[in-house]
Design goal:
Layout (H helix, E strand, L loop, with lengths): L1 H5 L5 H22 L5 E4 L2 E6 L8 H8 L5 E7 L6 E8 L18 H12 L3 E3 L5 E5 L3 E2 L2 H29 L8 H5 L10 E2 L1
Parallel strand pairs: 2-3
Antiparallel strand pairs: 1-2, 1-8, 3-4, 4-6, 4-7, 5-6
Length: 200
């Protein structure tokens, strides 16, 4: 263990491509940050607008960029430069730098309502996003100004999460044995969410 910590490069085969993905993600994020308003936080949601062919920014890179004031990430992929055609993927925060053999299935109680609200607003079908931290993603291309879509995410997510916490609280009051230790994972109750839009 001592030699590993002193000479990480010699043990690169242990983590191989996973660390390469993080390194590439750091470089890509720096590229995006050099372009105005491509990386910013809006009321607890970290927003990243990516180029069409850019790999998805890994969770640890997003967490390093936004810190604990953000507990959701909205990845927006520009399908056609200089147009308002984008694809969206909405994620919970994640810190693991490599896949795990067994993954704990986090509760996502308000996803169905969020998908309905997004479909109503954008006219595009939304589906559950894959992966441990995935919430929702657009099935097709959304032809709208991203700032308008981000605003709906901010309003809808905040409202639905508050209702979800209220439902669990009322349920726990009726039956204390049903109270979950994981409520804060989704509600973000322990996080100090940003109250204003911050540009990075």
């Amino acid at each position: 263990m001592d030699s590993l910590l002193r000479d990480l490069d010699s043990y690169k085969d242990v983590w191989g491509g996973y660390m390469d993905e993080i390194d590439q993600g750091l470089q890509n994020l720096q590229t995006l940050k050099s372009e105005i308003y491509n990386v910013y936080a809006d009321n607890g949601i970290g927003v990243v607008i990516m180029h069409k062919d850019m790999p998805e920014i890994p969770g640890p890179v997003l967490h390093r960029e936004f810190g604990f004031s953000v507990d959701r990430y909205l990845l927006i992929r520009n399908e056609r430069p200089n147009t308002d055609k984008f694809r969206y993927k909405y994620l919970m925060n994640g810190h693991g730098w490599a896949p795990t053999v067994q993954r704990y299935n986090l509760k996502k109680p308000y996803v169905e309502k969020l998908m309905l609200r997004l479909k109503e607003f954008t006219g595009v079908k939304w589906v559950k996003a894959e992966g441990l931290t995935g919430l929702v993603q657009s099935e097709g291309v959304v032809d709208m100004d991203p700032e308008d879509v981000v605003e709906v995410f901010v309003e809808s997510d905040s409202t639905l999460r508050t209702l979800a916490v209220l439902d669990r609280t009322l349920e726990a009051m009726d039956d204390p044995t049903k109270q979950s230790k994981d409520d804060d994972v989704l509600s973000g109750d322990k996080l100090k969410r940003a109250k204003k839009k911050v540009r990075y």
